[in-house]
Structure formats: structure tokens, C-alpha cells
Design brief:
alpha/beta, Rossmann fold, Dimethylsulfoxide Reductase, domain 2, Barwin-like endoglucanases, 3 domains, globular, binds iron/sulfur cluster
Length: about 675
């Protein structure tokens, strides 16, 4: 008989939804929303529903596989684990433990997924990745400005007079916030959307501001300049709670509003309007992740933060420079799981440049790569170099559920469980502050095993099995130590399925910031001479590289797909996906193109082919190709993107990318 049980979405997404999962005969039948979840209230998206297809898919990898003479052969777990453990032992003895690279990402938000770090630390410390392909530049930027990246609780937006959605298509990626926007609008709030793409969120805006890709920081500087010119700044906040305002004042004096309007391609009237909007407090700002995926990404977020600060919208209900909410993740004791004190050696590669770093690594060279929770072949920029690097090492081990582009290259594939086949606690540090419980609901098919089982088995073979002799319940209790002291115990989350975490609902309302000065820092003191704001612009633009812009006149964006969480779902669609190349109207007109035409997009790094779709209202000279498409469906847009790093070193520059386009037959 069918049974409906509560669970949670494991995907790395803003919303962290509660689920109702229908189970029958040890099988997941359907995934729905849990109406009792305080934020997500029974509504979930197609990506979440597709976890049923993911769990039951006949394409699941069910047995350990080893590549022999170019072909995958099924082997036993004992053989796979014995051989991998032996190689790990030999590599450590001959070259040192940092000859192993752990390449990981965030395909699953489970707390216990952090135990991979425990394994690698207990092994002796491997080469790890730093930075983030996704949100790194913005997180670092807010650490410079506020001392941390904190957001307001979801209902606080109902206190806003004005809501500025800056480079974030919440209708696609943050559906429960979209509902809050509708509610706020009904209460009288005005909505402003700033984005190069006229998206579904723009449709509900009172005003849509189309900005040249990558010029968002410059636009913020223009609005600040206008606010100062009109005398609308919050002198009280600036005087008592900030540091370095004079530097910002000098910076905006160094450029005219006319120049800013020309470079951002936003009219002077709209800059004037936005100055008034920010001064009409409280105005909340919600930034997306795409606008910081440029060389100037750190400065972009810092200039938008500065705008919220100058206009006095920090630390007040209905205000905020909302980018992420790291308070959520900080509630857990992840360090209890990771055993970082056991690390004897340590080396870090940038996540963006991991492929180049593998190819040039010396002392020691990378001999083995172990991939968990990720698909670098589609997700890491500059695909051709990634493929070369991941093919170059002696052993590539991929912990996976499906034969992804990365798994195709592997020497060993270790089949892992889906979220419904193991117990965990889930949260997202992006939007709301509830943690959700996901029990084990069904048995894993074939011989698929949890990542934790794999680490435990390898640890035993390598002589540090004692570090993994804990039950799942004990691991979860370890991660909840500080919360338990406040009554938020494992027992409670197992009973209630979601727990409200004790975070600040309106961050910085005491105006005590986590910066060296204790104030909001327009100039980041901890960064010495590098801490001043800059009017930085993208690396690839007609203003910074006119020769390149002549050859490649169009800006390429690579936004999050609607139906897939990054690359995770494309192979599960009922109809095989195709590469869709979305272009602004002027590009279609210049090349005499129509919807459905087959086109090639290229630059010096590579090419992608696909079918044209015209975006009638989007910013001129702008192209979008959704990220994450597998080779077998046409190939990843990262064939075109750069592996460069943002100005503050911690973010990708995936959108800092000029391309050209032509029709092909
Ligand atoms: S992907 Fe996001 S919106 Fe969709 S079900 Fe999961 S958490 Fe909810």
C-alpha cells in the first residue's frame, strides 16, 4: 500500500523545500511538496519532482565499474576498494598525499556529505579546491564590506517600500521568494528588476532596467553619484557606522554620469529614478549570482553593497543587501565532522583553474583525482582543458549515480545512493533559515552505496577505520552539537522534519559589523592597499579590450536551466534536450536569423552549436546558453567560457565572455 512520508530536497538551490514522498513496495512513486513546511508550503519545482525519475531511472549505475582497455567492466566492491586503497597507499608513500586531488562541488546539500573532507584529512591531507564557480566573488565581497554575507529572513521583504531584484530571476530559481514578491506587491511595494535579460521576474516589475552585462557595479556607482548629488544619502549611517566613505566619494567623482550611462547602457532618467528609489527607505536589494561571475565580480557586489549603505538601507527592517545567508550554515558544527587537525600536508588549487593546475602540477604531480558531488567536465570553465587534465592523470575515480561526461573519463566509477536512499539533514545558506530532515525512505538499487559507506570502507583499508566508527545518528548529532544546546536536537528534527535555526532575522540591526573596524567598510581595512573600491569593468568588453570586442561582439551569459539543477537532470527529460541559443533581437536582425535556425557560437576557446531562439526584449548584443548540457546533447557552454578568477580571487568569471555567432546548415 502506498504511504506518504515527509522528506526534503537535497539540491543546491535557494529554496530548500520540504517534501511529501509517496512510497510503495520500497519504491519512490511521487515527489510532492510538504504543505506543513513554513516557507515552501507544499509547492516545489520540476527539478525537485524529477528526483523520483532520478531515483528510479534505468540509467542508474548499479555496480562498481573499472575501465579496462577503454571499456567499463563490472567489478566487485571488494576489488574496487582494495585496488583504490592500494593506489592511495602507494601514492602517499612515493609522492605524498597531495598528489591526490579531491575535485568536488555541491550536487547534494546533505550535512553528512562533508564527511569526504574527514576522509581526505585523515588520509594525510590532499590537494583541495578553493573558491566557488557559483557565488565565490560575492561572498568574499560581502566579507570585506560587512565581515560576513548575511540575508534578511523571508517575510522581512513585506516591510519594504521598494524591492530591487538585481540580476536574479527568482521566478526560475527561487520560486517561494517570487510568491513573497507578489504578496509584497499586493501590499503596495514597488518592484524594480535590473537585468540584461527580460525574464519572468521582470514581467511583474513596476520598472525593468536593462543593463549591459557586467556593468552592474558601474550602474551602482552611478546611482550613488546621483544620490550624493541630490543630497539623499543617509549621513547618520555614514558618520556613525561606516569607514572609508571619503574614498567612495572620490571614486564616484572620477567619472561623469554621462559616461556611466554610456557604458552601462542605462539612461540618465533611469539612474535618477533608481536614486530616488534607494532613498525612499526601506528599500531591499536582492542580488543574483550571475552578476558577480565576471573579472570585476567582487567590485560589482561591493558597489551594490555601498549603494545600500549610502542610502541607509543596512540593518533596518525591509532593507538589506541580500546576497546569501551564511548564518544558516554557520549554525551547524561542520568542523566536528571534518577532522581538519589530522591533515599533515596541504595544497590548494583554484576551483576555476583546477585543470590548468593539474596539468602544471609539480612537487608532487597530481597522480589521482577523486570526484564527488560534481561533474567538472560540464561545470568547470574551458571544457577542452578540463578534459585534457582529467584524462592526463594515472587514476580518475568518480563517485556517481549516472554516466556523466566526467564519469565517461573515469578509471573507476563508484555507484552512490540518491538522497531518498540515505538519511541526512539539509539546509541552504541562500534564502530561508530552516533545516530539513530527510530520512532513508527506500533501499538502494543494485550495489549502490552511500558516500559515507565508501569512505568508511576505504578508511578501514588504509588503517584509520576508527575515525569512521560512528552511526549515522552519531554523525548527525556531532553536526548539531551547538544547536542541541539550544534545544534544537536531532530528536526534534526527526519528529518535526524542519527546524527554525536561531539566526538574526534582520542582520546588522545593532550596527556592529564583523569587520576589523566594527563598522561597515567602504574601504576594506583588512585588505590594506587592495581594500579600496574600484570602478572595475569586465575583462572582455569593448571598453577593456576593443580588439577582442571587434572580433567577438556579443556578450555570452550562461544562466541556470529551468528544468535541471546544473547538469543533473538533462538525461532524465522525456524528450532529449537540445542546445538552445537565445539571442537579443538585434543579433537575429543583423544575421537575418529566425527562431529554430541552427547556429554556431564561437570564440578563441571553443564553439557550441544549437538552435536559435529570439529574446525580443533583452539587452542588445546579449546571448544566453543555459549551463550544464552534456556532451551527448550538444555539449556544455563551458566550451566557450574562461577559467579566469574574479578580482578578489574566489569567484569564477563564467559570464565574462565575448563570442561571435553565425548560421550554419
Ligand atoms: S530544486 Fe529548489 S525549488 Fe525545486 S524542489 Fe528543490 S529546493 Fe525546491
Amino acid at each position: 500500500m502506498a504511504n506518504i512520508v515527509k522528506s526534503a530536497c537535497p539540491l543546491n538551490c535557494w529554496d530548500s523545500c520540504g517534501f511529501h514522498v509517496t512510497i510503495e513496495n520500497d519504491k519512490v512513486i511521487k515527489v510532492d511538496g510538504d504543505p506543513s513546511h513554513p516557507i515552501t508550503k507544499g509547492k516545489i519545482c520540476g527539478r525537485g519532482r524529477m528526483l523520483e525519475t532520478r531515483t528510479n531511472s534505468p540509467e542508474r549505475i548499479l555496480y562498481p565499474l573499472k575501465k579496462v582497455n577503454g571499456e567499463f567492466k563490472q567489478i566487485s566492491w571488494n576489488q574496487a576498494l582494495d585496488e583504490i586503497a592500494l593506489q592511495l597507499k602507494e601514492i602517499k608513500e612515493r609522492y605524498g598525499s597531495t598528489a591526490v586531488l579531491h575535485s568536488h562541488d555541491y550536487a547534494n546539500n546533505g550535512v553528512l556529505k562533508n564527511l569526504d573532507q574527514r576522509f581526505f584529512n585523515a588520509y594525510g591531507g590532499v590537494t583541495e579546491l578553493y573558491g566557488s564557480l557559483c557565488w565565490g566573488a560575492g561572498i568574499e565581497a560581502q566579507e570585506w564590506d560587512f565581515g560576513d554575507a548575511y540575508g534578511h529572513e523571508p517575510d522581512d521583504v513585506l516591510n519594504s517600500n521598494n524591492i530591487v531584484i538585481w540580476g536574479r530571476n527568482v521566478a526560475r530559481t527561487n520560486m517561494h521568494f517570487y510568491e513573497k514578491l507578489i504578496e509584497a506587491k499586493k501590499k503596495g511595494a514597488k518592484i524594480y528588476v535590473i537585468d540584461p535579460l527580460f525574464n519572468a521576474t521582470a514581467k511583474i516589475a513596476d520598472e525593468y532596467i536593462s543593463v549591459k552585462p557586467g556593468m552592474d557595479g558601474l550602474l551602482a556607482a552611478g546611482i550613488i553619484k546621483k544620490i550624493l548629488r541630490l543630497g539623499l544619502e543617509d549621513r547618520e549611517f555614514i558618520r556613525h557606522h561606516s569607514f572609508g566613505f571619503e574614498d567612495l566619494e572620490q571614486l564616484v567623482k572620477s567619472i561623469s554620469l554621462e559616461k556611466i550611462s554610456e557604458m552601462t547602457e542605462v539612461s540618465l532618467e533611469q539612474i535618477h529614478l533608481l536614486a530616488k528609489v534607494f532613498a525612499d527607505k526601506p528599500t531591499s536589494t536582492f542580488m543574483g549570482l550571475g552578476l558577480q561571475r565576471y573579472k570585476n565580480g567582487g567590485n560589482t557586489i561591493r558597489l551594490i553593497d555601498s549603494l545600500a549603505a549610502v542610502s541607509g538601507n543596512i540593518g533596518i527592517p525591509g532593507g538589506g543587501a541580500n546576497y546569501a545567508n551564511l548564518q544558516v550554515g554557520q549554525s551547524f558544527d561542520i568542523s566536528n565532522l571534518t577532522l581538519s587537525s589530522r591533515k599533515e600536508k596541504h595544497r590548494q588549487f583554484s576551483i576555476m583553474k583546477q585543470a590548468e593546475e593539474v596539468l602544471s602540477s609539480i612537487d608532487p604531480e597530481i597522480k589521482m583525482i577523486i570526484v564527488t558531488c560534481g561533474n567538472p567536465l560540464t561545470q568547470v570553465p574551458d571544457t577542452s582543458i578540463v578534459e585534457k587534465a582529467f584524462s592526463s592523470v594515472s587514476t580518475l575515480i568518480v563517485v556517481e549515480q549516472f554516466m556523466t561526461d566526467t564519469a565517461q573519463l573515469a578509471d573507476y566509477i563508484l555507484p552512490t545512493t540518491t538522497s531518498f536512499e540515505e538519511e541526512d539533514v539539509y539546509y541552504s545558506s541562500m534564502y530561508h533559515h530552516y533545516a530539513n530532515y530527510g530520512p532513508k525512505l527506500v533501499s538502494a538499487p543494485g550495489e549502490a552505496k552511500s558516500d559515507l559507506w565508501i569512505w568508511t570502507q576505504l578508511a578501514e583499508r588504509l588503517g584509520f577505520g576508527a575515525d569512521f566508527q560512528f552511526s549515522r545518528e552519531q554523525w548527525l548529532e556531532m553536526s548539531l552539537t551547538s544547536l542541541s544546546a539550544k534545544g534544537l536536537t536531532l530528536e526534534r528534527i526527526k519528529e518535526e522534519y524542519h527546524l527554525e535555526l536561531p539566526v538574526k532575522q534582520v542582520p546588522w540591526n545593532d550596527f556592529k559589523f564583523k569587520t576589523p573596524s566594527g563598522k561597515y567598510e567602504f574601504t576594506a581595512l583588512s585588505k590594506g592597499g587592495k581594500g579600496e573600491l574600484k570602478l572595475a569593468i569586465p575583462e572582455e568588453s569593448k571598453w577593456s579590450n576593443p580588439v577582442l570586442a571587434e572580433k567577438y561582439p556579443y556578450n555570452l551569459l550562461t544562466i541556470h536551466p529551468l528544468r535541471s539543477n546544473h547538469s543533473q537532470n538533462y538525461h532524465l527529460f522525456t524528450k532529449a534536450p537540445q542546445v538552445k541559443i537565445e539571442v537579443a533581437r538585434n543579433i537575429a536582425d543583423e544575421h537575418h536569423l529566425q527562431d529554430g535556425d541552427f547556429v554556431r557560437v564561437w570564440n578563441d576557446r571553443g564553439e557550441v552549436k544549437g538552435y536559435l531562439s529570439i529574446l525580443p526584449k533583452s539587452h542588445s548584443n546579449t546571448i544566453n546558453i543555459d549551463e550544464g548540457i552534456w556532451k551527448r546533447f550538444g555539449g556544455s557552454v563551458n566550451n566557450l567560457t574562461s577559467s579566469g578568477e574574479s578580482d578578489n580571487g574566489l569567484g569564477s568569471i563564467l559570464y565574462d565572455c565575448l563570442v561571435n555567432l553565425e548560421k550554419i546548415t
